[in-house]
Amino acid sequence: MSEERSLNFIEHIIEDDLKAGFQKNKLRFRFPPEPNGYLHIGHASSICLNFGLGERYDAPVNLRFDDTNPAKEEQAYVDAIKRDVEWLGFEWEKECYASDYFQQLYDWAINLIKKGKAYVDSQDSETIAEQKGTPTKPGTPSPYRDRSIEENLELFEGMKNGDFKEGAHVLRAKIDMSSTNMLMRDPVMYRILNKSHHRTGNDWHIYPMYDWAHGESDYIEQVSHSLCTLEFLPHRELYDWFLDQVYEEQNVRSKQREFARRNLSHTVVSKRKLLRLVEEGVVTGWDDPRMPTISGLRRRGYTAESIRKFADTIGIAKRENLIDVSLLEFCIREDLNKKANRVMAVLDPVKVVITNYPEGQEEWLEAENNPEEEEMTYRKVPFSREIYIEREDFREEANRKFFRLKLGKEVRLKNAYIIKAESVVKDDEGNITEIHCTYDEESRSGSGTEASMRKVKGTLHWVSVAHAEEVEVRVYDRLFNDAEPDGHDNKDFMEFINPESLTVVKGYAEPSLKESKPGEQYQFQRLGYFCVDTESSKDAIVFNKTVGLRDTWAKLQDKK
């Protein structure tokens, strides 16, 4: 029974179909992106749903590009989409394109014209829209609705051959201008677009509308279950009507079913709005680490496993809701905690001079890489008389709850010694430039001495000044200050841009990071998880902050 309870409602639909006699070996799914932008976190849920069903039922899954609008589509988007799906860990059986079926779709459209079920309308789009009526008022038939079959065939061929300007004619299905479903009021099937297509070049001057191409492409590919988001629920009636015109009994009849899209807080997932962020320079590109695109998340340091876990955790539902981005951050923390090596880096440095440590001396101390590993591994970290610590880890005076470094008190340096703050050096403006400390030479971590076992409340990370590797660190925050930036009727979502979504700092890291390569992930101890950026080089190492060690955003919002 536990297995049955774990099924989502889509899986229940499939199980019911199988019980009703549908053959399991005829199950086929598809992920059908339009190549007019990069995939985002919402697409990740759809990818995981369709490919997950493929894995569950051992059924093929097609990757099909619904490339019916050459005005907005590019090969670069196709390449990015393939890269993202592969990176998430999925394999498609066939790579398909709606453009593969342009001839078949055209031939079927000719048949509809011959049956009196489609006609060429020569009105402009505004007039056609006005004639559609309202949900409570029937539409008005086009004056061209009863054109002869011969005239329709002749005009449609002329449209295909490029004889007319864009907007001169459209092909419409002849269904029902008084239908309660507005989409059934003679929907447009083809429009003229005298634009070059990224795959078919200038072969076509007409392009099918999404509703006509999508369902028929499903049918051509023999997709059994066509899963889409909830806004397509009103389209299901039209999906079925178009299938009625071409379906033959010996074939699988595709079934459209809808699930709710999951919106992510503090971001937008409309491709149109994401494109605006790119074009207006708010972000550096589609893969900017602040973007909710899969490529942006990957560059920021999110793993495929964390995104799949996120998709699995939020599940599939029939009702839309807003998912707090903190859940996505929880998934990446949980994953990186197991995988990421611990290293030391200081992002807001202040110098500590250990006055009783011999000048010119250095020693290499043993540090564990990841306490979560089954078999512990270690690396060597250099220690010397001068080190950097975080500026916020020291106060001249502090209350009893401050367990970091303060004058006259002790802390332990991670993997190293216990030090005691004795005095400070300040510049003319009163800023601390150096903290002078003494160390207990018997207190080295792991040495087994009595002093090494001594308990002190605070432990600090640090970096040896002489060995420090200078790094650029990009610290990211929410791109928007508002949980639903596009949820305000009277405001533009751009008004909610967080001006502090990116802070670039110069930090210092332990020398083991000198050999780090783009994509590698680390936990900077006490600071968070960081990833080497794609722009990083051996001479200029760049890190992106993936996420902090704990969720501080909620606390900050409560304070505000």
UniProtKB/TrEMBL annotation:
InterPro entries: aa-tRNA-synth_I_CS, Gln-tRNA-synth, Gln/Glu-tRNA_Ligase, Glu/Gln-tRNA-synth, Glu/Gln-tRNA-synth_Ib_cat-dom, Glu/Gln-tRNA-synth_Ib_codon-bd, Glu_tRNA_lig_a-bdl, Rbsml_bL25/Gln-tRNA_synth_N. Residues 459-533 form the tRNA synthetases class I (E and Q) anti-codon binding domain. The keyword ATP-binding applies. It is an enzyme of class 6 (ligase). Residues 26-337 form the Glutamyl/glutaminyl-tRNA synthetase class Ib catalytic domain. One of its GO terms (biological process) is glutaminyl-tRNA aminoacylation. It catalyses: tRNA(Gln) + L-glutamine + ATP = L-glutaminyl-tRNA(Gln) + AMP + diphosphate. Keywords: Aminoacyl-tRNA synthetase, ATP-binding, Cytoplasm, Ligase, Nucleotide-binding, Protein biosynthesis. Its EC number is 6.1.1.18. Residues 125-146 are annotated as: Disordered. One of its GO terms (cellular component) is cytosol. The keyword ATP-binding applies. Residues 340-440 form the Glutamyl/glutaminyl-tRNA synthetase class Ib anti-codon binding domain. Belongs to the class-I aminoacyl-tRNA synthetase family. This is Glutamine--tRNA ligase.
